[in-house]
Design brief:
alpha/beta, Rossmann fold, N-(1-d-carboxylethyl)-l-norvaline Dehydrogenase, domain 2, 2 domains, ten-stranded mixed beta sheet, globular, coenzyme a biosynthesis, NADP, 2-dehydropantoate 2-reductase activity
Amino acid sequence: MKVAVYGAGGVGGYVGGRLAQAGAEVHLIARGTHLDALREAGLRVESVEGDFAVDLPATDDPAEIGPCDYVLFTVKSFDTEAAARNLAPLVGEDTAVVSLQNGVDNESVLADEVGAEHVMGGVAYVFSTIGEPGVIEHTGGPTSFTIGELDGSRSERAERLAKWFERADGMDVELSESVRTEIWEKAAFICAQAGMTAAVRLPLGEIRRHEESWSMYRRLFEEVCEVGRAAGTDLTEETVEEWMAFAEGLEGDAYSSLHYDLTHGKRMELEGLHGAIIRRAREHDIAVPMNEAVYAILTPWAARNAQSDED
């Protein structure tokens, strides 16, 4: 299997490294000092499942790689449009582009660029980030992945990719016939978890401790589920209960990547998360006051961090 990882950061670097360990031909696409380190010293993963290192080809030019069997698309949601425009050299007649991103709009953006027939959906639950250039820190989490065709079919290409994930160490995979619903489920969880930890600037345990804050966490989740149902997914009240139980079981010191980006002056995925939910809600005339509150609180920070990142 020849696979390109477009965005070899926390998620992409970890998955790409594990697939390479399993014998896949993996090419990494990165930029900046991270790319420099990958070229000079290879990819190093410091993982709770065991550290490892692999020497993989890395580039910022997809044309150097050529057509692949799969492109694992793992850039931040604010980079989706720009990166999608560079996919053409990687996409052959049978190539599948698999989004493993946060948010509910990425797949449609990819389809507009490469054609819907090339796009698969995916969900990643893994706690990993770039610790330093060339180094991925995998600190835990479920380390589970869900992939599937957006039309709900069970295809040969999806089954093949799932088998490669199963072959790799340190990853669990599920092949789903309702991956669109899975994408919305994760979006609901992130809007609650990321929205609250970033807006409050305190870990989950302190949010759970206060009835008003924990109620807002739940309402964020419920609002996204309502919008998701209007968009055609099968999100139910049981979905809310299951995920609230999951959040109850998380470590009290849990934060989110949105909180990390906020506090470290990095660009934030606010538009791809709460911003996207608000826009979808307005299309369906659904009230989402909790998402609007989080969006209003974090927008000045998102703008400041974006400007700082450009400078």
